[in-house]
Specification:
By secondary structure, the protein is an alpha/beta fold. The protein folds into three domains: about 170 residues, Sandwich (Immunoglobulin-like), CATH 2.60.40; about 230 residues, 3-Layer(aba) Sandwich (Rossmann fold); about 35 residues, no CATH class. It has twelve helices and 21 strands. A six-stranded mixed β-sheet has the order 18-17-14-19-20-21, sandwiched between helices. Strands 1-10-9-5-6 form a five-stranded antiparallel β-sheet. Helix 8 runs parallel beside helix 9. The radius of gyration is 33 Å and the shape is elongated. The N and C termini lie far apart (about 75 Å).
Amino acid sequence: MKKFFSLFYTNLFLNNRLFMALGFCVMLFLLKFFFAWLADIPAIAFGVLILFFFADIFILYRKKNGVHAQRLCPKRLSNGDENPISIEVKNNYAFALGIKVVDEVPHQFQLRDKTFLLSLKPNQTKSIHYQLRPTKRGEYDFGFIRVFVSSPIGLLARRYNFDAQTILPSFPSFMNLGQYELMAVSQHLQAFGIKKIRKIGQSSEFDQIRNYVGGDDIRTINWKATARKSELMVNNYTDERSQNIYCVIDKSRVMRMPFEGLSLLDYAINASVALSKVAMLKQDKAGLITISEKLGTVLPAEKKASQLGSILQILYKEKTRYLESNLEALYLAVRSVIKQRSLVVFFTNFESLSALQRQMPYLKRISRYHLLVVVFFENTELKSLSSNHAEDVEGIYHQTIAEKFIYEKKLMVKELNRQGILSILTPPQALTINVINKYLALKAQQKI
């Protein structure tokens, strides 16, 4: 009994309508001092209010399970993407309800406004839909669903607490992998931001001998087969396959810089997952290496079905470190792990030309044995600062410094090109598209 009354009091709330009714009764009692003709009207009004008060309690608590609510969400969240969340609410009362739903979202989102108002007819079910965008990998703890129901009287609200506590992991971005899969096989890539690249030369990987068809390149005619068959036969060639594609991710302090809530490391991780997916669709092998002040994870390149899942599991746990990256350890790992010429995409960031020059000897050594692409980032905040109108001397100073840093980034690209190293200087938001663009270009030009 004590537990029942405890639940009764803790889950009973007073609505604004009750306070308005009480205020009306108080006003009537005050007016009675000036207007004798009101007589017993204030007392009668207050008595009716008390009657409705207890009637409201009775009809709200007469049913044990008056409403039911459940949260529908994916098994895991996609980092940096809008993830759909829905709540289903069903009215089991025999009358219409006014309902307020409060969902306890994980504290990482710092949201206090996930409150939804709706009305439900008897035995009606409605769904509430909203989206959450995580900006960090890790676990997100969802709490209770609080449902406040009010009867047509509307003086009180009864709270239902539904234990919908669940912990969802936030993995590197995987929601758009289907789009990138379409990009890998589509002939209309401009719609996705992928450039159309003219393929030069032809592959030397022989596929089969087939009959000549009008329009075939006469240089592919197989004269020996033609003599045997007494009809024109041509050699059919296919694109070379099963090249090694390694994504190397720098986890040092330079990758902690945030843009639109996501760190540079998260942008690099999301791009690596997408590039690995596209590479495996192109029949290439995808591998992974992480590096900071010491060598991190090394995943040899494979194209088996479980490879993408292994990459996701590894990158889910990766965090930035606070020291400089050790490219000597990276070079030793590349030489010992990667046995054949491969495409190595190195995600890092350089804020000054001197920082690049310190690492240049190791980059040159890696590029001697593999096709190296260095990916680093534009500082979009500096770019917007340099384009703003300066209103005073201090503004001119800030604009000049911003332009200096932007120009230095362009010098880094030229320095890498001078050393024969391919590079991509990209805004963080366009990283995935630009990296896939580069991969498809290199694939079309048969550089790997």
